[in-house]
Fold each of these.
Amino acid sequence: MRGSGLVALTLADVEAKPGGIRHSKTDQEHRGQVVAVAHGTHAATDPIAAIAAWLMIRGDQPGALFTRVWSSRISDQPLGNHVVARMLRQRAVAAGLDGTRITAHSRRAGHATEAAGAGVPLHQIAAQTRHRDLTVVVNRYIRPLVALATTSSKDLGL
């Protein structure tokens, strides 16, 4: 998801199945789009388990899904888009990666790149990232090394 869509989520936007969002940059009429999120294979990186754990802390009061935390107090104030990017950079650095390379598109590009590397067809990647134009997915979201590794030209016997 785009950062703006992520921080705009409210508790009412999330359903056990399927997960949903109110709107996105491509949903200007606010009709809503459904974004499915599957369980992860590892407990530490399972997005469904992470949301469940956060909701145990956050509680079930209406409002922003992701809120600010000051010391040990949970606020009802939604996170800002810049906070999400900063948190992602901090996690990258903690994992030993170069956090300066994390941008606003890193979440979506990372998903698209990993999916392409795993052999997921482009139309499925575009459906998940909600891109209408496959060339945008290939040219802007799938990182060049993965695009080279998954190119069909390697199968042409050249």
Amino acid sequence: MITKLKYSLLILILSFFGCKKAENYSEVRRTLEQVLVDDQKFRTPVLDLAKQAPLDRKNSKIVTKIIDSLGWLGENKIGHDANLALFLAIQHADKLETMEKYLPIIKKASENGNADKKQVAYLIDRVELLNNRKQIYGTQLSFRANGKAFIENLQDSTNVNTRRKSMNLISLEDYLKKVDSSNNIRN
């Protein structure tokens, strides 16, 4: 009940301010910080999709209303966690159309310093794979039965680290080592 009330209040606030005229984003920040908590609630240590999917749908609705009303807000306005929530809700949206709609917006936000280039790379790769194309930056992982991470469906693997570097990503080899070491810690 309280969550629905908060959501309704946020929509009312966004409707009242209309565009980007709101200078105090504290309510938006608090809402997005809760989106971030909800985004990770049933994702770690192991994804429970049955429980996580409804939260992802709810988060997607909240975040798209915020972006449509206020644009992609940078860390300077809403802080790191709230800015991260914008990305994660789009990245974890249940509809490819949502990801595709907001991909140009996050690209532009990145150019303006309001989103991280790494996030753009992750979203591009997710969209490419969902469209049955090869990923460009190698951000989307698959896992073997033994828990070891690997990259599949990667275009031009010879030059992937150059592309990754352009998006402020670590080398593919270091990325896989990092993921495998964190998986070993959890297992």
Amino acid sequence: MSVAQSWQQCRTAQFSVQWHASGTVITADGELDAANSDQLASYVQRNVSRTKRVILDLRGLEFIGTAGFSALHRINVACSFAQVHWAMAPSAAVWRLLRVCDPDGTLPVTDELDEPLLKAAGWAKGYQRPLLQLVPQAR
């Protein structure tokens, strides 16, 4: 059950937050690049003071540039400083960036199978896990 929700829209991206009794879900949709990655980091920093647990839902990001990765590191530092446990749920674009920029897996990652907060927020937004596509074996 969501206690409250707010959102912010900036160039090519939209950010929203849902406060739940067990934590906070911050969602980013659209494209994250040098023009708006600072806004995401600031948006998260403004909202971490209200909770001890944050899930950063990035499943709606279609693109993320290297400036977005820098924002994720700033979010990691801000959450650590505020003693907030956090994790992100990446989209395919975010996974590609993490494989290149964070090969050691230093940034925390989760998904809706492991995270009840994310599961509730995802179902509310209508997200569905992609179906597997069977490919016939070449002869």
Amino acid sequence: MPELVSQEIQNYIEEKGLQEGDKLPSAEAMAQMFGVGRSSLREALRYLEALDVLTVANGKGIYVRDVGTYRFAGKIKIENEKRFLLSILDVRRALEGKAVELAAKRITQAQIDELTACLNEYSRLKELGKPTSQIDLAFHRGVMSAASNPILASVLESISALYEKFFNEPLGEQKLFDETYEFHHTMFAAIAVHDPEQALVEFNKLMDCIENIIKAY
């Protein structure tokens, strides 16, 4: 929903011919305009602010930042999406890295079995040449669940719309991160034997691989 709302906001900017510095309606007005809840609107605004489409000035309003940089049909220029993905990657390193450490300490046998099945399905889809983005996302969510920290889970969920950009054709490429496949297995192997230090090493290899791919794209 937040991604749909963000697209509606971009469409509104284009239709009204708004330019840099122009003020948008208030958050309350836009929530009513698009028929969405405040939480979905806030998430959409955070997303657009991260992409430099908007500036949200507390107590002052919401302003267009740079319409010339974007095509409002929904495709963002590659350089700006790269910057956005790298910013979210920093957040993933901090939050998900901690989840990996905790999962290695706390994972149960039932969760090990679930993640094993997840990786088996990942392998099957990859061998068939089918999209793996959603099973990849399911694997990472499984690791987060194994961390058994509801506060950390809540923080990760609060940025889910931004986080999932990694799994919804980032940079327009469904299989952009195929090169990270092996690190899912090595990271899980360390988690399964309760080795948090090695699990974090393998997680950072995965993150480094993604970062290098984004920068080289």
